[in-house]
Amino acid sequence: MLFNLPKQDKNSKDLSLKYRVYLAPMTSVDVDNYPKPEKATIKQKVLKADEKYNYLDGDARTLVMNVEPGENQFKGAPKVTIIIEGLTPDSLEYVYANAGEDFNMIVERCSDGRKFIMGDPCSGGMRMQYTSIGVLEGGNAGICVEFTGGQCNQPVLFYDAEFDVVADEAPVAPAKAAVQTS
Fold it and tell me: Alpha-carbon distance 34 to 122, whole Å?
């Protein structure tokens, strides 16, 4: 049986794994009371009271998380590359306003809910810089950003504690169409 089938929402086509990256400026981190890891896991909040994370969403093929070996064999430098898909005034403003800033970062693997934390006081935070704006691999428009931390003996840890996130703003209602169809 045939029936009319309008063009499908692009979200229905994406079956890839998702991730969410939470970012907080290092000025929001409680450096004096940063918790010690237990079994390579941080189990307490790391931000100061009333501080919150912001987030970026994406799919797994646009995130690369690595630890590069340091000059000292016992230390490594965390590095995360993220592609912000799409080029909008908001995404450009976000990148320009935050380039060169240091962040505490939590990466959530949404397939299983596991969280990883990087950018502790030892590493000095994860410094954000953009490496490309415009047409990226695959021909899509977007912004490639890189977060790099300093050398640390535990550059990536699991994260298993509560944390607060800035609430999303209510979406703006779309303008009514000026074109009338009949």
Answer: 10
